[in-house]
Design goal:
Blueprint lengths: L8 E3 L2 E3 L3 E3 L15 H11 L5 E3 L3 E2 L11 E2 L6 H13 L4 E6 L6 H5 L4 E3 L10 E3 L2 H20 L4 E6 L4 H6 L14 H4 L1 H14 L5 E6 L10 H14 L4 E4 L20 H10 L4 E4 L5 H9 L5 E4 L1 H5 L3 H6 L13 H7 L7 H12 L1
Parallel strand pairs: 3-4, 3-14, 4-7, 5-6, 5-7, 7-10, 8-9, 10-11, 11-12, 12-13, 13-14
Antiparallel strand pairs: 1-2
Helix pairs in contact: 1-2, 4-7, 7-8, 8-9
């Protein structure tokens, strides 16, 4: 029965009203400084009203050299707190809960690259054409402190939880991956040294926000390129992060994993399900599965099978922010999202995130 999907569950001390998560996605609504705008608030107000158990914000950069994209949220200084507080309040007013995702892009910042800025890199990579410089030990320690300070700002802004962005080839993925990390000091070489950065972030954030504040991670449990992080090493890292203070794990892709999409007439699939199930067998905190979930039956099967405790979506909510409320009313048709990825083309133009199909239909109506 689908009722299991609407039962309460926990992330640490936080009760979530159902098993649905809105996964973080850049929405290009911040201003040039990274501050929340009225457009941001309106966007999250709809999500807060949509019946989703917990909404995760678009990634917010923890330092100015960690910004991935233009018009991305910032949480790198105290000036960002008032705007972030408005974002949290917008979701709360609709009856929802919200987590702030905090991130550092490392070498994978097209935005800073385009401005000629030298990017902080875990290692010097001669074949990498972007201007970059291998971080010193002090710089790495400084970034760990940046994550802790950003988490405290999120708590002060009224968010219900903090989520680390440890996926998609951003800095946390880069440091643990042998594809990027060629260091021979305490931050590199063995997998034990490569995972040290992640574990230190978890420990320092947990110390900064206190023992009971909900804290989880979006985690690329393995890389999708030859020679990258293996599933076994990723799972052992997950175990150690839980021991260090992580309350839940959202399983996603690591280095080399592009945005999941389908072609016309291709079946929708859940590419990370086996990975999530493997993590679920290894840890005693909730596991969240993201990508490819477009109907209530699939969500229910994932949870009842024990492969994950919660399911996470984003693109369906771009087109239908009230999707979960619709399903709970008994209107259980699949999401209107067709996984065409046109929404990503819009946001890559640094225009506010919206459904590409809805955008197309509106343009056709205007041109007649």
């Amino acid at each position: 029965m689908s009722e299991i999907m609407f039962e309460p569950c926990q992330i640490g001390a936080l009760e979530i009203k159902n098993r649905f998560v809105r996964s973080a996605t850049w929405d290009a609504t911040a201003d040039e400084s990274g501050a929340v705008t009225d457009t941001s608030v309106a966007f999250y107000k709809k999500l807060g009203e949509g019946g989703i158990g917990i909404v995760v914000s678009g990634h917010a950069f923890v330092s100015s050299l960690g910004q991935a994209t233009p018009r991305q949220y910032g949480v790198h200084n105290d000036d960002m707190i008032p705007g972030l507080r408005r974002l949290a309040q917008a979701v709360h007013e609709g009856g929802g809960k919200i987590a702030l995702q905090i991130a550092h892009a490392g070498i994978n910042s097209g935005h800073l690259m385009s401005r000629g800025i030298t990017l902080p890199a875990v290692s010097s990579i001669p074949e990498m054409k972007r201007l970059h410089q291998e971080m010193t030990d002090e710089e790495i320690e400084g970034i760990i402190d940046n994550f802790a300070a950003a988490a405290v700002r999120g708590r002060e802004a009224g968010f219900d939880a903090i989520q680390l962005h440890g996926a998609h080839g951003y800095l946390m993925s880069q440091v643990i991956s042998p594809l990027y990390n060629h260091r021979t000091d305490r931050w590199g070489g063995s997998v034990e040294n490569r995972r040290r950065f992640l574990l230190e972030i978890v420990r320092r954030v947990r110390q900064a926000i206190g023992p009971d504040f909900p804290f989880f991670i979006k985690y690329g449990v393995m890389d999708d390129q030859k020679g990258g992080l293996t599933l076994d090493d990723g799972i052992e890292t997950a175990r150690q992060m839980v021991a260090a203070g992580i309350d839940a794990i959202e399983v996603s892709g690591g280095v080399g994993q592009g945005v999941y999409r389908t072609g016309e007439n291709e079946p929708i699939r859940t590419p990370f399900r086996e990975r999530a199930a493997a993590v679920k067998r290894a840890v005693d905190v909730p596991v969240i599965l993201v990508a490819g979930i477009r109907n209530l039956e699939t969500a229910q099967d994932i949870v009842t099978s024990g492969d994950a405790d919660m399911v996470s979506m984003c693109r369906p909510f771009i087109r239908e922010p009230h999707l979960i409320a619709r399903w709970q009313r008994g209107e259980t048709d699949p999401a209107a999202c067709i996984t065409c990825n046109k929404c990503m083309a819009i946001v890559q133009r640094v225009e506010p995130l919206e459904c590409g199909e809805d955008h197309r239909l509106r343009e056709e109506a205007i041109t007649g």
